[in-house]
């Protein structure tokens, strides 16, 4: 049995890639220095996987920004506005960020979530005359690099149908599937180049197979693998994030040498596909969860896999469910976790070790080492039984329908809120965070090391908050925020104050580019021991007569952006989190904070990949939000924020959340996302983003006016707010202040024009 790695985290144990990228973007290091750091990371990650027993090392899982963007560059799919001669590394950064140390800045490409994950990819832009040709050699160079080190390699590439599915069309409307023949020709060229290097296996990822594909897309899969099988290479067709059992007949007919299944998503697929494997065909069993951090119950997995190991022999490969991109790198770095919690965990390196141990259990179940593994699994199960809280369970059992409803309908609330706040037409606000400067990060680091007292830390953060309020007042923003200087992350901050939630020191996971997050660990029933945000919200409100928003992260987002326990349903955990946020809303309201934002950027991320399974999720996700917000009085204005989401298929659920104001990302799509709100006749208020905060470019007043005029063509003026796309934590003050000044001036100009 081979051990199969589908991909490894690329950021490094200490986020070396993140810091190198940001230094390069600031022109503090040269491109050769960046490339040298990247090469060392790849060498380290290959070595770790080889030491764990992985024979075919994945290449192509490394990216300087995003693997989808890398593939776009490989085939020359670069928007015209970013083209400037041959494609180079700076081309990728201009596409992703809007600018690079060299070249002319231009609007960044659209970015959105990769299937149902919190990983963001750069959306390929395809036109009707799109040409595909090998234009960027990174994939081939890295394969040659690994081969030169003496490794056997398995290139890992997004498959052609998934690539087309993730792309968007620009210019004249057309069916992007008509580009498939030309795209397949480019894939063939790439595969031939791999073959020329002496490579035997190539992994083609088709997560699109987890969707319920119509006939046209199923035909595209069939045609693609008819064409690609003509290259004399062994193709491993990999799908993940969901079951592909509904496409069993389609997949079983494809001319591929192996199939990878996500058995964490659906363990029943194993029997289905094992029964219909072609002679010599490999089945890669994705049994180790590549999207969560909990240690696998290897003894139970071995029991399940044992008959298939006997049936298939070396044709059974053992693998994580998907790429380990979604997990932190190394649990051994964690020195502050309690032993009982640490025993429950496995990060990327440990998951490879689990594969090795599982292999040993299947080969020699009675060996002493195997018995030790089984004993460890039994201890883990015993530890997990301590996770229940009777008080939390009783509170959930006592909920009634009234706990999910606001007092009155939105029309009544809107009048009450307008009487209270007297906001102008097109009110301006921001999404929550303001720049986390180097000084603030250094202060927090010194405080955590004990070099700064708690009182001094508090005093310094008060000065930062006061400065943030004063800057907003000077800019003329209508509804202020306190800036969140005390918060490292919108989920981590709340998790640190909730019972049943744990934290790591180095459990970083890439979200996009150089952006990394450190998800909390929800390991037990969740409750709120004490208020979490009152002190800072009250202090900020004391500095001004203008309203200051209370800033909360919603229950669904905390759930999705945490590593959540697996012994109870996610629906139940969402309800527990909703009760904690509900208590916070009640306390904020009690001390006079009358505008409260409950962010839910991950709301759509939780959608099952199969549309037929959506409604159950939407029902409980909407209910969790409503439970958190329904305690608000009529004149308490509840905001929510969603970014980088497609709303077409979920607009009814978003309306059912019944937030008074929703703010959304729309600047990169040039307000196209508002079409669905217009068609649905969305009843509540909307803040379409006019400032792309993920790019260092500063939008002009004219650009923002043009965007809001587009918005006003779709949404009645009285419903519109003016705001950035997202929080401003990652930007610098010298970028933020002129951009917000232009935003406020744009709103004033529109009020003058539109009355």
TrEMBL record:
<feature type="domain" description="Cobalamin-independent methionine synthase MetE C-terminal/archaeal">
    <location>
        <begin position="426"/>
        <end position="748"/>
    </location>
</feature>
<feature type="binding site">
    <location>
        <position position="113"/>
    </location>
    <ligand>
        <name>5-methyltetrahydropteroyltri-L-glutamate</name>
    </ligand>
</feature>
<feature type="binding site">
    <location>
        <position position="118"/>
    </location>
    <ligand>
        <name>5-methyltetrahydropteroyltri-L-glutamate</name>
    </ligand>
</feature>
<feature type="active site" description="Proton donor">
    <location>
        <position position="694"/>
    </location>
</feature>
<feature type="binding site">
    <location>
        <position position="605"/>
    </location>
    <ligand>
        <name>5-methyltetrahydropteroyltri-L-glutamate</name>
    </ligand>
</feature>
<protein>
    <recommendedName>
        <fullName>5-methyltetrahydropteroyltriglutamate--homocysteine methyltransferase</fullName>
        <ecNumber>2.1.1.14</ecNumber>
    </recommendedName>
</protein>
<comment type="function">
    <text>Catalyzes the transfer of a methyl group from 5-methyltetrahydrofolate to homocysteine resulting in methionine formation.</text>
</comment>
<feature type="binding site">
    <location>
        <position position="665"/>
    </location>
    <ligand>
        <name>Zn(2+) 1</name>
    </ligand>
</feature>
<dbReference type="InterPro" id="IPR013215">
    <property type="entry name" value="Cbl-indep_Met_Synth_N"/>
</dbReference>
<feature type="domain" description="Cobalamin-independent methionine synthase MetE N-terminal">
    <location>
        <begin position="4"/>
        <end position="308"/>
    </location>
</feature>
<keyword id="KW-0677">Repeat</keyword>
<dbReference type="GO" id="GO:0003871">
    <property type="term" value="F:5-methyltetrahydropteroyltriglutamate-homocysteine S-methyltransferase activity"/>
</dbReference>
<feature type="binding site">
    <location>
        <position position="484"/>
    </location>
    <ligand>
        <name>L-homocysteine</name>
    </ligand>
</feature>
<feature type="binding site">
    <location>
        <begin position="431"/>
        <end position="433"/>
    </location>
    <ligand>
        <name>L-methionine</name>
    </ligand>
</feature>
<dbReference type="InterPro" id="IPR006276">
    <property type="entry name" value="Cobalamin-indep_Met_synthase"/>
</dbReference>
<keyword id="KW-0808">Transferase</keyword>
<feature type="binding site">
    <location>
        <position position="484"/>
    </location>
    <ligand>
        <name>L-methionine</name>
    </ligand>
</feature>
<dbReference type="InterPro" id="IPR002629">
    <property type="entry name" value="Met_Synth_C/arc"/>
</dbReference>
<dbReference type="Pfam" id="PF08267">
    <property type="entry name" value="Meth_synt_1"/>
</dbReference>
<feature type="binding site">
    <location>
        <position position="665"/>
    </location>
    <ligand>
        <name>Zn(2+)</name>
    </ligand>
</feature>
<dbReference type="GO" id="GO:0071265">
    <property type="term" value="P:L-methionine biosynthetic process"/>
</dbReference>
<feature type="binding site">
    <location>
        <position position="726"/>
    </location>
    <ligand>
        <name>Zn(2+)</name>
    </ligand>
</feature>
<feature type="binding site">
    <location>
        <begin position="431"/>
        <end position="433"/>
    </location>
    <ligand>
        <name>L-homocysteine</name>
    </ligand>
</feature>
<keyword id="KW-0028">Amino-acid biosynthesis</keyword>
<feature type="binding site">
    <location>
        <position position="726"/>
    </location>
    <ligand>
        <name>Zn(2+) 1</name>
    </ligand>
</feature>
<comment type="pathway">
    <text>Amino-acid biosynthesis; L-methionine biosynthesis via de novo pathway; L-methionine from L-homocysteine (MetE route): step 1/1.</text>
</comment>
<keyword id="KW-0479">Metal-binding</keyword>
<feature type="binding site">
    <location>
        <position position="641"/>
    </location>
    <ligand>
        <name>Zn(2+) 1</name>
    </ligand>
</feature>
<feature type="binding site">
    <location>
        <position position="643"/>
    </location>
    <ligand>
        <name>Zn(2+)</name>
    </ligand>
</feature>
<feature type="binding site">
    <location>
        <position position="599"/>
    </location>
    <ligand>
        <name>L-methionine</name>
    </ligand>
</feature>
<dbReference type="Pfam" id="PF01717">
    <property type="entry name" value="Meth_synt_2"/>
</dbReference>
<comment type="similarity">
    <text>Belongs to the vitamin-B12 independent methionine synthase family.</text>
</comment>
<keyword id="KW-0862">Zinc</keyword>
<dbReference type="GO" id="GO:0008270">
    <property type="term" value="F:zinc ion binding"/>
</dbReference>
<feature type="binding site">
    <location>
        <position position="641"/>
    </location>
    <ligand>
        <name>Zn(2+)</name>
    </ligand>
</feature>
<feature type="binding site">
    <location>
        <position position="643"/>
    </location>
    <ligand>
        <name>Zn(2+) 1</name>
    </ligand>
</feature>
<feature type="binding site">
    <location>
        <begin position="15"/>
        <end position="18"/>
    </location>
    <ligand>
        <name>5-methyltetrahydropteroyltri-L-glutamate</name>
    </ligand>
</feature>
<keyword id="KW-0486">Methionine biosynthesis</keyword>
<feature type="binding site">
    <location>
        <position position="18"/>
    </location>
    <ligand>
        <name>5-methyltetrahydropteroyltri-L-glutamate</name>
    </ligand>
</feature>
<feature type="binding site">
    <location>
        <position position="599"/>
    </location>
    <ligand>
        <name>L-homocysteine</name>
    </ligand>
</feature>
<feature type="binding site">
    <location>
        <begin position="515"/>
        <end position="516"/>
    </location>
    <ligand>
        <name>5-methyltetrahydropteroyltri-L-glutamate</name>
    </ligand>
</feature>
<dbReference type="GO" id="GO:0032259">
    <property type="term" value="P:methylation"/>
</dbReference>
